[in-house]
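Our platform keeps sequence and structure together, in a single record for each protein. Nothing more is needed to write down the fold, since each code stands for a local backbone conformation. An entry from our holdings is shown next, in its original layout:
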Amino acid sequence: MIMTPFDDSALKIAEFLLQIKAIKLQPETPFTWASGWKSPIYCDNRKTLSYPSIRTFIRQQFVSLINEKYGMPDAIAGVATGGIAIGALVAQEMGLPFVYVRSEAKKHGLTNMIEGVIEKDQKVVVIEDLISTAGSSLKAVEALREHGCNVKGMVAIFTYGFDTATETLKNANCSTNTLCDYETLIKVAVKHNYITENDLESLKKWRESPSTWKQS
């Protein structure tokens, strides 16, 4: 199950993501994802790295979340590409080794899937910037497990909260916690007039069935 704390920090992160347009909401002019899905929302959390105060807050929240949910791991692993930079910042803050997991193994050289030094049986927490369908996230978790690591869980900045992602991670026995989620974001977006009350129904329908959603 993907858990998100509905508290002041989640609300603050939602506001940050909207302010810097790391997340854009456009129900009237939807985006097209790489999958071909039409979507009223687009997320690029890498933009947070360009704002020192925001990336510092996210780093601090990750450290607190990891300590609370998993205790001190032996290493931090970022998921390429969005989880690499923030993962390295978290590892630095916690004084831990850092590795990152590629989307696929290199086709030359050492053919690595995991870049960096990590040993079997080490306790690892995985860091993502975004969880959508959880396919790439789970692929990274599986790569670490195949290497012999003890994956304690995964943390992410934001999740859409799709049922398919929740089920996928549950079946993989991968504990997942995020700093912010779709419901929190929408509440903040309405409060600060990023969207109108009239947009809510369309956004709700998309959240329920993103693969079949059509602009109304």
